[in-house]
Write a structure and sequence with these properties.
heterodimer, A: mainly beta, 7-stranded mixed beta sheet, 11 strands, 0% helix, 52% strand, globular, B: mainly beta, 6-stranded mixed beta sheet, 4-stranded antiparallel beta sheet
Chain lengths: 113, 118
């Protein structure tokens, strides 16, 4: 157990639907990062939050949004889903100082049918 | 923007042998951190080893070591005495060392699939 909790582990939904992925960071970590890993792709950075505020955006579609709540958990909302959104979505939280990198959750496998 | 390149989509090694995975990166920064992550079939991302750019000494973690060549912007991973459990995707990653309120996310390479032959 890495200490980063992602729910659900698996999600199957239809095109056009909306889903919410949830992430609880490691205790004490203020930064949360979301990544998308498609079948033949590496990890694509989506968005970063720090202590409730958005810090950086990567290749996140306008149909996707995220937020970090006061208790530091984060949610990634995916709407108007398309087949191409099927992927593994990772959440990671940052250990300070920076040198230690990230601790990743086990991911949410999203399948859009 | 920083980029990370892993030129070997797949590597194969015999059990108990040594294998080296390549990684190069492009950056204009002088302060940064480099990482190797392992992703086994379970898809969990596991930190293998990290290197601070300001340290000349190459990092080592048991059977895993790196060859960090800052001037060449190269960061290869050497796995000694390969074991069946080492079979996985390996990702090289870069993180800025800049402080302040800016982004500090990881930039990943596309990965190398390591196969261990028994």
């Amino acid at each position: 157990d890495s200490g980063v909790t992602q729910t659900p582990k698996h999600l199957i939904t239809a095109t056009g639907q909306r889903v919410t992925l949830r992430c609880s960071p490691r205790s004490g970590d203020l930064s949360v990062y979301w990544y998308q890993q498609s079948l033949d792709q590496g990890l694509q950075f989506l968005i970063q939050y720090y202590n409730g505020e958005e810090r950086a955006k990567g290749n996140i579609l306008e149909r996707f949004s995220a937020q970090q709540f006061p208790d530091l958990h984060s949610e990634l909302n995916l709407s108007s889903l398309e087949l191409g959104d099927s992927a593994l979505y990772f959440c990671a939280s940052s250990v300070q100082p920076r040198a230690y990198g990230y601790t990743f959750g086990s991911g949410t496998r999203l399948t859009v049918v | 923007a920083q980029t990370v390149t892993q030129s070997q989509p797949e590597m194969s090694v015999q059990e108990a042998e040594t294998v080296t995975l390549s990684c190069t990166y492009d950056t204009s920064e002088s302060d940064y951190y480099l990482f190797w992550y392992k992703q086994p079939p379970s898809r969990q991302m596991i930190l293998v080893i990290r290197q601070e750019a300001y340290k000349q000494q190459n990092a080592t973690e048991n059977r895993f070591s790196v060859n960090f060549q800052k001037a060449a912007k190269s960061f290869s991973l050497k796995i000694s005495d390969s074991q069946l459990g080492d079979a996985a995707m390996y990702f090289c990653a870069y993180r800025t060392g800049l402080s302040g309120g800016g982004a500090d996310g990881l930039t990943f390479g596309k990965g190398t699939h390591l196969i261990i032959q028994p």
